[in-house]
Amino acid sequence: MCAGQHATVTTSQAAEAAPLTGFTVAVTAERRRDELAALLERRGARVVVAPAITIVPLGDDEALHAATAACVGLAPDIVIATTGIGFRGWLEAAEGWGMGDTLRAALGRARLIARGAKPCGAIRAADLSEEWSAVTESSEEILDRLLAQGIAGRRIAVQLHGGAQDEFTGALRAAGAAVVEVPVYRWTLPGDVAPVRRLVGQLTAGQIDAVTFTSAPAVQALLEIAGDEAGRVLDRFRASTMAACVGPVTAASLIKQDVPVVMPHRSRLGALVKTVTDELPARAVRLSVAGEPLEIRGHAVVVGGRLQTLAPVAMAILGALAARPGAVVPKDKLAAALPRGTDSHAVDVAIARLRTALGGGGHIETVIKRGYRLRVDE
Q1: Which CATH code fits 58-187?
Q2: Where on the phi/psi map is residue 31: left (φ > 0), alpha (ψ -120 to 50), or beta?
Q3: Whole-prediction pTM
């Protein structure tokens, strides 16, 4: 389909449209990215897959090998398991290095604390027993409990997942504990960052309605790859694009930068998809224009019961008009809203195509020598 073409769905099809039809959602995860993309597509979303990070293979991870040896040598009093997959992966990697029995023995002598149900399940699957599990699945709850008990002089091993937890481990050390960090499933930038760079361009052009994040390192990697455009990416999140995070740990760095985030009550993939499915349609712009209901949904519009997919240029024009419903928008303002910015002639061409896409029912009025406006009903 070329830039001037549009796809139309009939009234009956529009009524049956999936809840995310018309919206574009980006997936930054590497692990389970296909599953996440499929769940979003099943609900009607157009999905952009751009893994921002890649996992260092456990068997090749010298840092994990060294940390495992340090953990065994430390003979920890307390071991904190933060994720189920990370705890299982740690034991499997140790088995591959011939350290499995030694590590299990050290874990068996320690007090095991789980950050939620999944690491708790992994502990039990390894024929070990947890002393306690954090109901809120947060490191803050674990920290509060340990500080209340007193940990001065205690030896603590913390199974990390994806990246450092400097505030958490720093607080343990400040309370007098000796801490070994076990970096299970470390993340690095992907070998090919081109998909993420394309995502950055789409984000800054306003062509992405939501970005999903399933790990804190993915947030940092996106901004790192964005480089000089990182500020514009954050501004887009603050203004219109929804940042959907799987949980509070993932969301923390965005919140610190004044980015509003949405996240499910439970840190699960299915719950994240449900949150996106509930939130995005609620953000659709709904107006009555030229006697017909008009709803703007990401890259599509529902007008008079017809679901119409629009090209980026047409959508940019419609978005600029809808931002000032009923008001005259000058051509130069409309030109500035175009994805690449251009002259008034391009605006006239885009308006003509948009009118055709909307059905030619007089939805857009030309105001001579001033600009264009949506004919919003009183």
Answers
A1: 3.40.50.10090
A2: beta
A3: 0.74
